[in-house]
Predict the 3D structure of the following.
Amino acid sequence: MKALEGVRILDFTHVQSGPTCTQLLAWFGADVIKVERPGVGDATRGQLRDIPDVDSLYFTMLNSNKRSITLNTKSEKGKEILEKLVKSCDVLVENFAPGALDRMGFGWDQVQQINPLMIYASVKGFGPGPYEDCKVYENVAQCTGGAASTTGFLDGPPTVTGAQIGDSGTGLHLALGIVTALFQRETTGKGQRVLAAMQDGVLNLCRVKLRDQQRLQHGPLKEYSQFGQGIPFGEATPRAGNDSGGGQPGWIVKCKGWETDPDAYVYFITQAAVWGSICDLIGKPEWKDDPGYAKPEARLDKIPQIFDTIEQWTKTKTKLEVMEACNPLNIPCGPILSMKELSEEPSLRATGTVVEVDHPTRGKYLTVGNPIKLSDSPSEVSRSPLLGEHTSEILTQVLGLSEDEVQETWASGALGEMPEQAAAE
Ligand code: CAO
């Protein structure tokens, strides 16, 4: 028994934000039925392809554990099937451009009438307001949600981050909204709308930067290295390079091999509580009692110099040796792990966070499994569906159509072209 077993999701999502959400729900046991346009499907099936005519990794890594039905929801027959699906599902999830579902005839008002229990969940770029009609992609959200203006170095331009906080981050927010609405439905007996706007999701993840914006009104931000460097603050939260967000000076420093390995670095935090251990470790025991170094405030104007000294030590060790030396002393540090290293890390394979999956046309590929572990609801990762792979199965099993009705629906063209195998049957 999985946590969300018995919950059926009508998955109208595409690209990344929505699929992240429904993939999570599928891992928790929900039956996720992905509705795709006949012949085309989710645009990401064909994007960034590494193997000709094979579903891209972009698609396969975001659509595990789902079933796929092809349906032209703009045809009469397609609308009829969609209405039946709406009646049979608990949750509708979508991340179309604003207004697309209304134009299709399946906006919130219509869906509520068809199925008052339905939870109607949407990702949009912006919430209600001046930008609500805009189409939004990952980096647009990072820029409009406060991440870009606070990421990068002080003397450089705003920078986007590799973590997909706009798309995958919003998908995560939406998933929480959906299970919360399902929980509330237990007492109200009603569905409701769930909206996760990408701007809101990014801003939520940048919460500490809005904290700093308000702190700025009461004086400079002393933990930012620009303070120690005597660089005045402007009106808005500045970019802080690799400064640690937690108020303890942190920096990325070189390790052994940095000349040839772009990831031979470690994040090193000079946490006040372990300052004495740091001084011993880097060969500067005299700093422990030196009034110029002993207290955090005294060190603020010497941060670059202190990290230079730390780096002289880290350059003599690999990043993992630095970690091995620091951990027993409770000195927080983070080796910069490359995607290659993460994909090969045995402990991540052992926990199912990195999983190898077999696919009929692609062969074996790696994906990231469920990062949220439930002790009573294990998440096995199964491959993403081929386009329309489960169309007939869903019509019979979920909607209860007879064989004749299924054939009739194929003949109407609403499902696209019948796959050769199904036609032979
Ligand atoms: N049958 C028939 N038509 C279908 C269909 C189906 N099964 N599935 C989709 N369509 C139609 C839609 O109805 C829509 O038609 P109209 O515009 O004529 O009403 C059309 O396909 C295109 O849908 P779209 O507007 O969602 O796609 P787009 O490429 O124009 O925009 C995106 C893509 C991502 C910018 C937009 O969907 C968006 O802003 N989504 C919300 C924010 C979001 O999720 N962004 C993250 C994207 S990356 O994860």
Notes: The longest strand covers residues 31-36. The mean pLDDT is 96.
